Amino acid sequence: MSLEIRDxxxxxxxxCQMIIVNDxxxxxxxxxxxxxxxxxxxxxxxxxxDIQSDGSYLIAGDDDQNDEFSSRACDCCGTRLAGERYHxxxxxxxx
Length: 95
Description:
The radius of gyration is 13 Å and the shape is globular. The chain is built from two helices and four strands; from the N terminus they run E-H-H-E-E-E. The protein is an alpha+beta fold. The model has no long low-confidence stretch (mean pLDDT 95). It has helices at 14-22, 34-51, and strands spanning 2-12, 57-60, 67-70, 83-94.
């Protein structure tokens, strides 16, 4: 079994990136109160789970492809809040 790139143009917001890369949402507490941070974390984790529900893997991509400022929707959680977008790759197993 090997992996293939399913999507090499998957761009995510800062909030999603920290959870995808570090499985850590503690950074949400810096800008949001506790209840809002917990709700945001749940939204992001559900989005990641939905994306990976077919057995795909969402991983960090190439830092050279990051976009320093974008109003493009996050490909993970869908937020349109402007800010940095980080390159990720969506992989899947192939037989």
